[in-house]
Write a structure and sequence with these properties.
This protein is about 45% helix and about 10% strand. By secondary structure, the protein is mainly α. It has one domain. The strands form two sheets. The protein has a two-stranded antiparallel ribbon with strand order 1-2. A hairpin with a 5-residue loop joins β1 and β2 (about 80-85). The longest helix is centred in the first third of the chain and has 18 residues, at about 25-40. The relative contact order is 0.15.
């Protein structure tokens, strides 16, 4: 099924919470084991990709580190340091004010189609989601999971009360909105997808989201 917002509820009906094999703490332990197993087994491949991307960024966009860290909001509203590849010019943060009038999303989200601050290699990394690959280290550290709500750069004290439900679970490398709308969705719409995921969360759903994420990346459905 080509998943869209229109057929999402029908798709989620397959994951009836009453029929979940693993529930509560058992589900969380199995999910953590799955995260570690998949990340560790695939480590030789993704570590090689990280090394190659690092070198390419250093050569094509000098002037700032190839990888950077940024505070994000995780489970329980706790702030943690996330790792990403740099996809923009070294002075991107200063230029953000200059291009603020072009922002297409509701603040504090920020997105510009064909953002002039994005480097050539950065555009490719964003389209393929390779810029997020260093977050596999966050998964190993237990700060993130493979599947869950994407951690926000803005703190939990900016959330509306109903937004805080997403803080009940660990943030993820991918989630429902990555396989449906990616960056085209406003924050409130992404929150509704996060809550739908939380309400139906199970190992089978996690696996299906991972598979659909891989398909979305190969189809290059827009930057995130």
């Amino acid at each position: 099924m080509n998943l869209t917002q229109e057929n999402l509820n029908d798709w989620l009906d397959k994951f009836d919470p009453e029929k979940h094999v693993f529930k509560g703490q058992t589900y969380l332990r199995v999910k953590r084991f799955m995260d570690l197993a998949l990340v560790i087994v695939s480590a030789p491949a993704w570590l090689l990709v990280i090394a190659v991307v690092w070198v390419i960024i250093e050569i094509t966009s000098p002037g700032a580190p190839a990888m950077f860290s940024q505070l994000r909001t995780g489970k329980g509203g706790k702030r943690f340091t996330i790792y990403k590849f740099r996809t923009m010019v070294p002075n991107a943060e200063e230029l953000k004010k200059q291009y603020a009038h072009l922002n297409e999303l509701q603040w504090p989200d920020f997105k510009i189609t064909n953002d002039p601050r994005v480097t050539k290699i950065g555009g490719f990394l964003r389209k393929t989601s390779l810029d997020e690959l260093p977050q596999l280290f966050n998964i190993l550290k237990g700060e993130m999971s493979l599947v869950g709500p994407r951690p926000t750069s803005f703190a939990a004290d900016t959330y509306k009360l109903w937004h805080t439900e997403r803080l009940d679970v660990s943030p993820g490398l991918t989630g429902l909105w990555q396989i449906i709308g990616r960056a085209q969705l406003e924050f409130d719409d992404r929150l509704r997808l996060d809550i739908a995921y939380i309400d139906h969360a199970c190992i089978r759903l996690d696996f299906e989201i991972l598979l659909k994420t891989i398909l979305a990346v190969f189809e290059q459905r827009g930057a995130h």
